[in-house]
Amino acid sequence: MIATVVGNYPKIGVDAQSPNLRSAISRFDSGQITEEELHRIEDEVTKGVIEEQLEAGLDMITDGQIRWEDGQTYFAGKIQGFRITGLIRYFDTNTYYRQPIAEERLQWQGPISLRDYRFAASISSKPVKAVITGPYTLAKLSKGPFYNDFKSLVMSLADILNQEAKALAQAGASVIQFDEPAILNNKGDFPLFQEAMNVLIRGVSSKTALYTYFGDISDLHPGFFELPVHILGLDFVVGTRNWAFLKDFPTDKELGLGIIDARNTKLETVEKIIEAIERASKHVSLNRLHINPSCGLEFLPRSNAYSKLVRMVEAAARAKELLS
Question: What is the spatial order of strands in the sheet that 130-133 belongs to?
């Protein structure tokens, strides 16, 4: 059983002495600090976030996605052919992203997240999971006037992000996670999604994970379980119907068990978490479980996010003792 996170972590520290990334970005935009100084502050915040994840007791961490403006801009802003435009609401959350528009043929210009992964891996005593916004979600939250149809945009991004994944694998990333929440709101596109996944993971030597959240996989089952990845991450907080599908979970895959509410400050009890782990273990063995929040933690204040991880790790350890 592995205790981990889904992706992002709150950027704002718990006290006034913490490095303030928002302030640094504002000062950089107004010309008050250099790009080098901005990167130094990004590194400081990333280091602090990694230290918190390690202190919480996680078995596998991420870099917290501190340098990500949002899930779309971070990748689209460095893919040739995209132009970044105005703010759009991100699903049903109170956060926003800058919508990319594909005005020319999209091209991968080289690794986008490699430097960030290497920095995190160099200072972490635990494995670091690399995270990539999946091609279907990136396409769905973008506009593609250059492309004649939506499929062409998705498949172009699948090829580009496959190159990104292979670069991360070559750099030593043991797990590469693809985030695809948008498919849960557009289930009729599943055949296209399957085709894109086949391209996305082609030639990637690392263990691959596909994470969905903000919903359930009803109407995608059982095809969803047949997707060519090693780990399938599901949201059991918003997607409570996912529990019904675990009886059919494949024996050759691992499950990302999203049972900690990453959008609610209320702290789960140890007993409730253990109960959820026990429920899942009736269908998926403990050695194939990744215990994690329902989605990224950036929707929460930093102190709440940390407390939830501490509680999750404690519950996972107790569940392992009780159920082994």
Answer: 2-3, 289-293, 254-260, 231-235, 207-211, 175-179, 130-133
DSSP secondary structure of 95-157: -EEEEEEEEEEEEE-S-SSHHHHHHHHHH-SS-B-EEEE-HHHHHHTSB-TTSSSHHHHHHHH
In 84-114, which positions are buried (b, 16+ CB within 10 angstroms) versus exposed (e)? eeeeeebbeeeeebbbbebeeebebeebbbb
Task: Summarize pLDDT for 249-285 with one digit per residue, the tens.
Answer: 999 999 999 999 999 999 999 999 999 999 999 999 9
pTM above 0.90, yes or no: yes
Give how far Cα 320 sits from Cα of 43, 167, 269, 313, Å.
35, 35, 16, 11
Count of residues for the chain? 324
In 3-state terms, the chain is what percent helix, strand and coil (to 5)?
45, 20, 40
Confidence of residue 31 (pLDDT cuts 50, 70, 90): confident
For helices 35-56 and 114-123, angle between their N-to-C axes, nearest 10 degrees: 50
Four-point Cα dihedral 133, 301, 268, 51, nearest 10: 70
pLDDT given at position 94 = 86
Question: Residue 20 contacts by C-beta under 8 Å, 6 or more apart in sequence?
Answer: 12, 13, 41
- In angstroms and rounded to an integer, the radius of gyration of the C-alpha atoms of the chain is 19
The dihedral through the CA atoms of 195, 253, 290, 67 has a sign that is negative
* Residue 149 burial class via C-beta count within 10 angstroms: exposed 0-12, middle 13-18, buried 19 and up: exposed
Q: Answer left, alpha or beta for residue 65, where phi above 0 means left and psi between -120 and 50 means alpha.
A: left
Spatial distance between the Cα atoms of 207 and 41, rounded to a whole number of angstroms: 31
CATH number attached to the domain at 2-323:
3.20.20.210
- Residues 44, 259: Cα–Cα separation, whole Å: 30
Residue boundaries of the structural domains of the chain: 2-323
20 vs 102, more confident: 102
